[in-house]
Write a structure and sequence with these properties.
Structural class of chain A: alpha/beta
Strand order of the largest sheet of chain B: 11-10-16-7-8-15-12-13
Number of helices of chain A: 17
Largest sheet of chain B: 8 strands, antiparallel
Number of strands of chain B: 33
Strand order of the largest sheet of chain A: 7-8-6-5-4-3-2-1-9
Number of strands of chain A: 14
CATH class of the largest domain in chain A: Alpha Beta
Oligomer: heterodimer
CATH topology of the largest domain in chain A: pyruvate-formate lyase- activating enzyme
CATH architecture of the largest domain in chain A: Alpha-Beta Horseshoe
CATH superfamily of the largest domain in chain A: tm_1862 like domain
Shape of chain A: globular
Largest interface: A-B, 47 and 26 residues
């Protein structure tokens, strides 16, 4: 959840959905996102909604968090009354969810099942920082129902980890993969970041190779984004670090795609590669295909039937809202049909499965033909009525999307 | 008991301050109402410290002999672009105060206006201002003035408009020296229109100097050139606000409101007479000024075109010298090709359009008028460089000016070097005093309208002053340089330049555009070409990455809003071929401040 939340209309005190959303409930697959807003230290590049112990202040603590999250889940249960359908995916993100003991995560997961109904084959993921989990923790997570773990590896080069303020030892993420496999996790992801100041092509190649050698079935690789207001942005502004160069980022992306594809991981979203369809992250696909989800926790975004809302950001205000029996929603937007369509085009175009040409306006269709002529979209796919980005096209996805939504 | 006079002075030499003191001293404006530059009514005049429109104000003054006199002060613009307005004001006067800064000496434009005054047979009163300044050198500059106008240095008055010292004596001198008006009060009325101003509330206010006879409130008036008859709604004098009167007699200066809606119906230079008993012979008028400098004005937002058209129509009510006609640019859309008296006039019109009408404009680089003789024998007048004929051109003529530069003699070398580099031909040089010279050149106007004045100032540490007047045309080896993006010519960037400088212009412009135009999804060649011959080339490398890596649940709203904003930005881009050029790039590339072809 980077950046400041957008403006929107107020959320009713009891969190009630507008009629338009209530009527659409159950029409799309349903998931739950749980935001755990705690970190041991804040990384210089990160602008997510997360807090160190010192930043939390009075009225919020890691210990009280699970109870509050469960309170919000109960509220969701009351409002949805089973109409959103069973929960097909759960994703614990952060922050660092694994700063909470596995028992706390298990309690939250049980509440989701009790209040909203967990599907039998649900995908249940948690993010984990390599230094916060070990063999035992991973085994307990698996035992309480987690099916997938996503580890923040970022890089295998010590100097890159240092610039990113990541505290784990190189090699630790790969060991975590082994432990997760041993614990019975069928799905393990490694997150990587490229383009960090000081990273060389060779560093990046090595990171990819180390990640692959650990045997995950999924890899997410992101170019470093220098977000306003972060320590990293300040260091670049002061000239202490060079800014990432777009041409270098493009080269690194192509390296990643080539090496990952060579190892049998195919891209299915601009920044995501998986061994096969079964290994793709179902929770993220739900975001990208217009699904419904309830976001639990401070700053979490939810989307149900064309209405999106976002919670208050600070854990203390979040706690205050729930203690008063109020919705923690800070603001919401009820999407117009045009906005829903814009979002669907914007999100599906980033997927390997692409966007149906039928969704596009005449101008958008012309842009699709132009993008194809420019080699940014597949001509074979266009012939069968879809816009599917080529490798070059993925690097220019935002430009293509501007045309398609034009 | 009437004296009509004006003040001739260079910008900053204190004319408006002197006028302010006269207003106070004669009791026309009291201390409470006083504000600086009282007569400069437009904000823009006050801010820039210049006068654009002439004004006339009536000042009562008891002379040294105890008689009550009426002094009419007719204000004159001080800039070269407005020489035409100066000559209009001069025709309404019998005398002129030549006001010169005692710390700086006479400047080129003052000299030019001085010659106009002499040609109009005006009595001149030389005055040094700012004698309170520590840097004042009244002895030196009094000698210089005496030398120029052929009087004795002791005849040069010394005042401080700031402190008021010497101003009363100056008014007495005006009475003593400026001849009274000499018209015949009993002849049929004849009044010279020396200004016409459009007022939102009152329509056109016509400023007149009555030469013969009398104009009365109860009479209808006749414009001698058009034979149009108008009702007189109001007649009066300015003191310093309009004060209605019954009549204006011979020698008097005042205003008339006739219900005329457009300044063109009360044309400056026309003679106004009584409809009942009209005069037959008009007063000598003056020729309408011809626009010297042209530029395309386009609304930044194409939707504002109707607003721009209305705004120009309104400005023209008040500015007879502004000409414009619609034009279309493939790069900039719908706009107007506008003709101006000079660069300052252009800047002021543009600023007034933006300030008074809230428009945001792009203006193309200014150019002069070219007369192109074709091999076929035909001829075309080119006011827009993109319409310069391709090939089959036999001869090209460009306007030239006689430029006069006044400067300390230390800078003669630097000034000559600059003028030579701008294709100037030396006409002569004279010493005004031991260390000040007047240098005269014939130069192409095109060489002056970019940054000549800035260059002149920077090479003389601000000491040089410049004046120029049209001096016909000359044949020159001129070519049109086109700028092409991805092979598509961008009409707004076409420029006519001397063949010897074409390559420099091309190199500078292509380099500049490479910096200004963002990378596109494809490589964009930028070329400068004369006809089909490419003389300079740059390349904008293709953009390789335009994608945000992450887009998860919490990012979607922000991402959609960003997309909407980008699409809005894209709508405002100008698309040339397939190249999207931000407006800012046009503005920067066309800005005359750092005209690229002038890089040395």
């Amino acid at each position: 959840m980077p950046g400041q939340p957008p403006d929107g209309e107020p959320v009713p005190l009891d969190g009630r959905l507008p009629d338009s959303a209530a009527q659409r409930l159950g029409g799309s697959p349903f998931g739950v996102y749980v935001h755990v807003p705690f970190c041991v230290t804040r990384c210089g590049y990160c602008d997510f909604n997360t807090y160190t112990a010192a930043e939390l202040g009075p009225g919020a603590s890691r210990a009280s968090y699970p109870g509050l999250a469960i309170e919000e889940i109960r509220m969701a249960g009351r409002l949805l009354a089973g109409r959103a359908g069973p929960v097909r995916t759960v994703f614990f993100g952060g922050g660092t969810p694994t700063l909470l003991p596995p028992e706390d995560l298990a309690a939250i997961l049980r509440a989701i099942d009790a209040e909203l109904g967990l599907a039998g084959d649900a995908e249940v993921t948690t993010e984990a920082n390599p230094e916060t989990v070990d063999e035992g923790v991973l085994a307990r997570l698996r035992a309480v129902g987690f099916t997938r773990v996503s580890l923040g590896m970022q890089s295998s080069a010590p100097h890159v980890l240092k610039v990113l303020d990541r505290v784990h030892q190189p090699g630790r993420p790969e060991r975590c993969v082994t432990w997760a496999r041993a614990a019975g996790f069928g799905h393990v992801n490694l997150d990587l970041i490229y383009g960090t100041p000081g990273e060389s092509d060779a560093d990046w190649k090595l990171s990819l190779e180390h990640a692959l050698a650990a045997g995950p079935d999924h890899i997410s690789a992101y170019s470093l984004i220098v977000e306003d207001g972060t320590r990293l942005a300040a260091r670049i502004r002061r000239g202490e670090l060079p800014p990432p160069d777009d041409d270098v980022l493009a080269d690194r992306y192509l390296m990643a795609d080539e090496i990952l594809a060579g190892a049998g991981l195919g891209w299915y979203e601009v920044s995501n590669w998986a061994v096969g369809g079964e290994s793709a992250c179902r929770h993220n696909l739900l975001y990208w295909t217009g699904g419904d989800w309830w976001g639990v926790g401070p700053g979490a975004h939810s989307h149900l039937g064309g209405t999106r809302w976002w919670n208050v950001r600070h854990p203390a205000s979040y706690a205050g809202r729930l203690a008063a029996g109020r919705s923690p929603g800070r603001a919401r937007e009820v999407l117009t049909d045009a906005q829903r369509m814009t979002e669907r085009i914007m999100l599906t175009t980033r997927l390997a499965s692409g966007c149906p040409v039928a969704w596009l306006s005449p101008a958008g269709q012309a842009a699709a033909r132009q993008a194809t002529a420019d080699g940014l979209a597949s001509s074979r796919a266009l012939a069968s009525g879809r816009v599917e980005l080529t490798r070059t096209g993925r690097l220019l996805a935002d430009a293509v999307i501007r045309g398609l939504t034009g | 008991m009437i004296r009509n006079f004006c003040i001739i002075a260079h910008i900053d030499h204190g004319k408006s301050t002197l006028a302010d003191r006269m207003l106070q001293l004669t009791g026309v404006v009291d201390a409470r109402q006083m504000r600086a530059q009282y007569l400069d009514r437009m904000d823009i005049e006050r801010e820039r410290g210049i006068t654009i429109k002439s004004q006339a104000v009536r000042l009562p003054w008891r002379g040294a002999d105890g008689t009550q006199y009426v002094l009419n002060l007719i204000d004159t613009p001080g800039h070269v672009d407005f020489t035409y307005e100066v000559s209009r004001s001069l025709a309404a006067c019998e005398g002129a105060i030549l006001l010169v800064d005692a710390a700086q000496g006479i400047e080129a434009q003052t000299l030019a206006n001085l010659y106009l005054a002499l040609e109009a047979d005006l009595h001149l009163i030389p005055v040094l201002n700012k004698i309170d300044l520590p840097a004042a050198q009244p002895e030196k500059y009094a000698a210089e003035l005496a030398n120029i106008i052929g009087c004795d240095a002791s005849d040069v008055l010394r005042v401080s408009a700031k402190t008021g010292e010497g101003v009363a004596e100056l008014l007495d001198t005006v009475i003593a020296q400026v001849p009274p008006p000499s018209g015949n009060p009993h002849a049929p009325a004849r009044a010279l229109i020396f200004d016409s101003v459009y007022d939102t509330y009152r329509g056109v206010v016509t400023y007149v100097r009555v030469v013969d006879g009398k104009l009365s409130r109860r009479e209808r008036v006749l414009m001698l050139s058009t034979k149009a008859v108008h009702d007189t709604l109001e007649i009066g004098v300015i003191s310093p606000e309009p004060v209605p009167t019954e009549a204006l007699g011979a020698g008097e200066v005042g205003y008339l409101i006739t219900g005329v809606k457009n300044v063109r119906q009360a044309r400056v230079g026309d003679t106004l007479t009584s409809a009942a008993s009209p005069a037959t012979r008009p007063l000598p008028g003056y020729a309408n000024p011809k626009p010297m400098v042209f530029s395309g004005l386009y609304p930044m937002d194409g939707d504002d075109y109707p607003e721009l058209r209305d705004a120009l129509d309104k400005l023209r009510l008040n500015d007879a010298s502004l000409v414009y006609e619609p034009e279309t640019s493939t790069a900039l859309g719908f706009g107007f090709r506008c003709g101006f008296l000079g660069l300052l006039h252009m800047e002021i019109v543009r600023e007034r359009l933006e300030r008074e009408f809230g428009l945001v404009l792009i203006s193309t680089a200014p150019n002069v008028v070219y007369r192109v003789v074709l091999e076929s024998g035909g001829e075309s007048i080119v006011t827009n460089p993109s319409e310069f004929p391709d090939g089959k051109v036999a001869k090209v003529f460009e306007p030239v000016v006689r430029a006069t530069v006044l400067a300390p003699s230390d800078y003669v070398g630097a000034i000559m070097e600059l003028c030579q580099s701008r294709r100037g031909a030396l006409l002569g040089m004279e010493y005004l005093s031991t260390d000040r010279v007047e240098i005269r050149y014939t130069m192409p106007l095109a060489e002056i309208i970019f940054d000549f004045f800035d260059q002149l100032k920077s090479r003389t540490r601000g000491y040089a002053s410049l004046d120029y007047e049209p001096a016909g045309e000359q044949e020159a080896d001129l070519v049109k340089v086109d700028i092409l993006l991805q092979g598509e010519p961008v009409d707004a960037f076409s420029q006519v330049v001397h063949a010897d400088k074409a390559r420099d212009y091309g190199l500078a412009m292509t380099a500049r555009l490479r910096e200004l135009i963002p990378r596109q999804q494809f490589e964009v060649p930028i070329q400068a070409a004369i006809g089909s011959r490419v003389i300079a080339r740059e390349n904008i490398r293709a953009l390789r990455k335009d994608v945000l890596a992450k887009c998860y649940g919490g990012d979607i709203t922000r991402k959609r809003k960003l997309l909407e904003k980008q699409k809005e930005g894209k709508r405002r881009m100008k698309v040339i071929g397939r190249v999207e050029v931000p407006q800012e790039a046009f503005v920067a590339a066309l800005s005359t401040e750092q005209a690229p072809e002038r890089k040395r």
